[in-house]
């Protein structure tokens, strides 16, 4: 049983798969951002992940 899924620009991915993400496109940088340069914030309600966003550590933009 996982922790749910996170929606990224690449679609829904399992939380446990996040570390395997190579790059995602930041909406502000508009360039591939390495997984190590993003911070993922998941919204949890009633014990379930209902939404997730990630912020770019380079420009602090929040991507949903
Ligand atoms: Zn950025």
Main attributes of the structure:
mainly beta; three-stranded antiparallel β-sheet; two-stranded antiparallel sheet; 7 strands; globular
How would you summarize the topology of this molecule?
Blueprint: E1 5-8, E2 11-14, E3 23-25, E4 32-34, E5 38-45, E6 48-56, E7 62-63
Number of helices: 0
Task: Quickly give the structural class.
Answer: mainly beta
Low-pLDDT runs: none
Structurally, the number of domains stands at 1
The largest beta-sheet arranges its strands as 5-6-7
What does this protein structure show overall?
By secondary structure, the protein is mainly beta. The protein has one domain. Helix content is 0%, strand content 52%. The strands form 3 sheets. The protein has a 3-stranded antiparallel beta sheet, with no helix packed on it. A two-stranded antiparallel ribbon has the order 1-2. Strand 6 (48-56) and strand 7 (62-63) form a beta hairpin. It is globular. The chain starts with a strand and ends with a strand. The mean pLDDT is 76. The structure holds zinc ion (ZN). Zinc ion binds next to loops.
